[in-house]
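Mods, move this if it's the wrong board.
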Amino acid sequence: MKAIEINGNIKTFNRLPKTWEDASGVHLNFNKLSDKDAQDYGFFDVVMPSYDSVTQQISNLHFDKKKKKFVYDVTEKVFSQTLEQAKETKKSQVKTMANKLLSPTDWVVTRLVEREVAIPTDVEEARQSILIKSGEAEDAIDALQTIPEVLKYQIVLVEPIDILGSELV
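Not the wrong board. Structure tokens:
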């Protein structure tokens, strides 16, 4: 990524433009310039910092004269919710996910209640597993100590399926 500062405003580009117009005229094949030549026109690399997008944010793109690059500042996010609110939101996501997983087999439970037709063992085991894992997830969420921990918590109520098998072809 490249950037240039024009009249106090920084403009970014995924790559150098094909043409560029400045006070000295129109420059064709501008995108073919070397990095050094592009710097002569004020185009410098943009350094994208590594940061945790859950707990940090990037802002204030500015030119670092020592590095001769445009850089971002990385700052900590300020969360608008309390720890308890974050936990309740995450636990609500657990409940929603469990409901979606249980929903396709709800008819079997209804059949049991209305007509006393037994639930197949595999369905019963699968439903029980989802209920146990959702309870465990909620307990795990309750045990978390910080908002970032809650936001980063991955809800897993069923084992992921590897559609490609154990080996990639």
